[in-house]
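Dear U.,

Please find below the material for section 3 of the report. The protein was modelled together with zinc ion; I have listed the sequence and SMILES used, followed by the predicted complex structure.
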Amino acid sequence: MKKLIRGLNEFRQNYVRGHQELLEQLSHGQKPRVLFIACSDSRVAPNLITNTDIGELFIIRNAGNIIPPYGAANGGEGGTLEYAIDALGIEQVIVCGHSHCGAMKGLLKLNKLQKDMPLVYDWLKHAEATRRLVQENYPDLTDEEFIETLVAENVLIQIDNLKTYPVVKAKLHQGKLKIYAWIYKIETGEVLAYDAKTHTYVAPQSQLPIDNSSDDIYSLAPSVANQTPA
Amino acid sequence: MKKLIRGLNEFRQNYVRGHQELLEQLSHGQKPRVLFIACSDSRVAPNLITNTDIGELFIIRNAGNIIPPYGAANGGEGGTLEYAIDALGIEQVIVCGHSHCGAMKGLLKLNKLQKDMPLVYDWLKHAEATRRLVQENYPDLTDEEFIETLVAENVLIQIDNLKTYPVVKAKLHQGKLKIYAWIYKIETGEVLAYDAKTHTYVAPQSQLPIDNSSDDIYSLAPSVANQTPA
Amino acid sequence: MKKLIRGLNEFRQNYVRGHQELLEQLSHGQKPRVLFIACSDSRVAPNLITNTDIGELFIIRNAGNIIPPYGAANGGEGGTLEYAIDALGIEQVIVCGHSHCGAMKGLLKLNKLQKDMPLVYDWLKHAEATRRLVQENYPDLTDEEFIETLVAENVLIQIDNLKTYPVVKAKLHQGKLKIYAWIYKIETGEVLAYDAKTHTYVAPQSQLPIDNSSDDIYSLAPSVANQTPA
Amino acid sequence: MKKLIRGLNEFRQNYVRGHQELLEQLSHGQKPRVLFIACSDSRVAPNLITNTDIGELFIIRNAGNIIPPYGAANGGEGGTLEYAIDALGIEQVIVCGHSHCGAMKGLLKLNKLQKDMPLVYDWLKHAEATRRLVQENYPDLTDEEFIETLVAENVLIQIDNLKTYPVVKAKLHQGKLKIYAWIYKIETGEVLAYDAKTHTYVAPQSQLPIDNSSDDIYSLAPSVANQTPA
Amino acid sequence: MKKLIRGLNEFRQNYVRGHQELLEQLSHGQKPRVLFIACSDSRVAPNLITNTDIGELFIIRNAGNIIPPYGAANGGEGGTLEYAIDALGIEQVIVCGHSHCGAMKGLLKLNKLQKDMPLVYDWLKHAEATRRLVQENYPDLTDEEFIETLVAENVLIQIDNLKTYPVVKAKLHQGKLKIYAWIYKIETGEVLAYDAKTHTYVAPQSQLPIDNSSDDIYSLAPSVANQTPA
Amino acid sequence: MKKLIRGLNEFRQNYVRGHQELLEQLSHGQKPRVLFIACSDSRVAPNLITNTDIGELFIIRNAGNIIPPYGAANGGEGGTLEYAIDALGIEQVIVCGHSHCGAMKGLLKLNKLQKDMPLVYDWLKHAEATRRLVQENYPDLTDEEFIETLVAENVLIQIDNLKTYPVVKAKLHQGKLKIYAWIYKIETGEVLAYDAKTHTYVAPQSQLPIDNSSDDIYSLAPSVANQTPA
Ligand SMILES: [Zn+2]
Ligand SMILES: [Zn+2]
Ligand SMILES: [Zn+2]
Ligand SMILES: [Zn+2]
Ligand SMILES: [Zn+2]
Ligand SMILES: [Zn+2]
């Protein structure tokens, strides 16, 4: 805790001094461009890995970067994303999984969890589709590959859940919302983005359009969102 | 989105290169010391304001840094904090509110929210105690003071909610868990910590013990755990 | 009621006499090929409009042919579809809306419903995405067109909900499940099927493949199902 | 699926041509006389067995013809029956079980279901009273008799559940609603109706009154409904 | 509070001294004969009005002597009555309403309650059948008569709710459980018992059988219970 | 039942005759000073042990004197306590556990309960914090001591739950509500009250202030409200 307090001081002496204008301006309101949904894992640092500043990312974090389907839970996920899109007008959502995710590992030992950590067990029910899909469709994986596959499929499944929300559905239909599937690799600091055309995760850079003059028309792997019938 | 991809590259070129050992080591498991519960607000950046590195903070973020009481919600909050304490052995929890919080402002216009953002409305029921406490006990505040008071009382109320969880109750009783109430001031980058003795939020530094040789016995405003604000 | 009893007799004298073998055989177990999800509306008659016999369609019927997302309701929908797919091995699902649907009309007068028929109001929350999507995306419709559009979009939205179920997700991924979107026109007895390529509802016959030698490889508008990432 | 499309055509060429007036008339609104609650089982065909036409039966179908008590579920059952009685003015309800019901068989292997089909398991909790009543009161049955008894008692128990709904309670008290308990025998196409006086299921024909001039005063086994205190 | 402490002393000096044997015996286990369900109202005193001693009545008390149907609530009512019947073997249940009940009065001002006392409002949903039944069936009552009728019908409706519980259903079927409907008149100290034959509340004494040699075969107005199909 | 009817007569002949004025006055409204929350156990008799009269105690009773946290249950507890404090203006709450409590014993055999009494099992989840706290913090207790400790800690934990309710939180903050923790010893008729200063249960009399002129300023162990047991 001492270390944290020291850190608070360092932050004020270093960062705050150099960003007084930004802080003052932000005190009048936030205007983030992106809703970033990530795991609570301490090794995932949204602002750091995207090199974004204070004020740029609106962030939801829970174990497993899970978004229960609309109506399936009364925790913070639904209200927070509704606020992000309806109140803040955010038009880009990133669901970001990560390698070595403890929540995904939990899907492999649900019996133990039911007894030892009943709330974790209950929470992981919202990733039951992930577990079952991988279990039934990937029979010959090593343990490590199994976890990797859970991580990758889970991001897509949570995006499908996301798309059951009225606000998301309505905005997608209008073309006013794009949803991106990312995986962060802890060991290399690399991010992969889902490419719907090839059904694989690829380097996001490889998807950069030639004419990238406008950020608004840029579209990185937004095809996940496009799967919604128009 | 282009900007984010550029950021990913910058992160790899700058940070990753200089922290390869750390990343490699973290890929074998996380060992965070603190569970940090904060608002999804883009202006709140836990790692930045505490100057902590990847791997140090396990983070829950939702609109309003709210923790519904045990059994009151089936969202990510309960399972994630159970995981933090039971699986990761975390012994320090910080609930961090912030100035100008949109969720707290929402408590003042619930009628409008019920119609326009029903999920936000439902979510804020878990802060109804905050709303009612401030409404009934602080009659003569300006609007700005009112929001500030909501923010301050809400952190304490969410800590009381936190204390209804079996894992939290059991660890507090053993003295193996400390809970801290913080408020982050967006405009100044300052953090205040709740001091139970004086029922006020104070500069955390002022509470540093003279003999601070050990982080474990150091205790910053841990008295929140021992009591309800009066 | 007299009429119904007379009908029971007519059924036994006419149908039963001519289908004793079928009935006897079915008494040893059902083997339906299709899960048919339709509105409770008395004007929708699944077996009649598909000219199918006893034993061919496993049927869920409720007001509005609604399937709440996985985890969002504890009524009969979830268990019944899980039974259909997991226990009976059904591999084809039809979600069938219909013109002049009273439930869809209900979406236009929710305020009145909340007071007069609170359970209908609660139930229609599972079609809130339908309401909002149409309201925000189709500004210039006549009342009649508005209902028609609600009916058409609702079928697609309920299919998206369907796809949040673990059993559905897993089977879709294996290519062992196809989901069809139908609309039944009460006034003409006509059925339209959703064609994902053109984002329109078309005559199902027009989609018949040239080589239709096998029912198993035949694919009518299954592209809704294909939207799931593989 | 080819077969279904062929059926759609046959329906239009045969049925629709001969019923154009009826269809046209029904397109202006439905006026069903009966709410028919039946199992999703493909072998149960409400319109066929009662020889009723399009427009006569408003139909709820789920696994086990179960109606959870008022407030116990947020699926389609409650809203749909409220709509039937309050919006359509239906005054007759038939709850129709059937022999060889898979849902009733499920009550005998709940342990297996809890693991293999968790949603079916959850759904059957609403028939737990059926299971326990039969288990404790009929000790010496063969397996087949046991299933038969579950089917028979379940219909009565679901009727008791039905009677917990405000709309049902109010209409029963006014004598404006009658509830009938039926069992359909798959092997013979026969229907039995519950006779409250003798506590047995009997042929519905045997209950026909001598003077049956009016359908309104005709009363087939409505005594189940009369059990409600007036 | 001083008064209460004085009362504790008086209890020990007066009652305890004279009942040491009873208390000692009860410390080895309770053996109550009756489950008494009453309103929390301070004017209702189950032990006093039945002149029963410590150990005789197992008591549930909440606002309005309400028992939500099986599955409709996760409060104390369900678990407590299951414990009473299954663990303690209680075979007699009394649901006791009372005149001037504040909860019943609340049914007349639900709009106000929804805003001012949301939890009371939510709780009274379990008495919505009472409200609707009386509103629709008793058009010409004075306010006072209206309340009286709500009280009387509510007891019967809560008994119907009670009968949806598996344990209740099973025991009723075995004839091992009797349920009684009582109303306590605050102004006169009188109790009325529901008589199913006449559909009225009568003096319980008037129902005493001539041969009352055995308490076990004595049956006061148990016909409410008999309404369950056997 | 005969005995109870005899008791009703005795009550009218003895008590009612001597308290006609009180009853008449109470028929115009109740004005209880205390909300008394106790177990349903037949051996606990709130009015008797406090020697209070009709009209003095507003009483909630369920198995285990449990108050689920705000939002965690929709049974009678929340609405009833809201009514007590908001509608009746009650300013004193007593949560009263008792020795040999069957509900607390249930916490030691949850596995068995889950199978045999599922509703009791579900209900005891609201005392899971009690179970875990005692299990992890009191390793060397005999069975009897274990039960005693569960009873004692459970009262304090339920008081913490109570403090999550908006109405309770707001009134505590105003100093308009006091909460007391009591344990009733069945074998001796003795009551112990929790003393926050010493973290022990003590004879309530020992806490009487010297100057006890006013009941309003009298304060028996009200410090429970101010803190969590350590
Ligand atoms: Zn993770
Ligand atoms: Zn905020
Ligand atoms: Zn319809
Ligand atoms: Zn069936
Ligand atoms: Zn009352
Ligand atoms: Zn007890």
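For the text of the report, you could mention the following: Confidence is low (pLDDT under 50) at residues 210-230 of chain C.

Regards,
Y.
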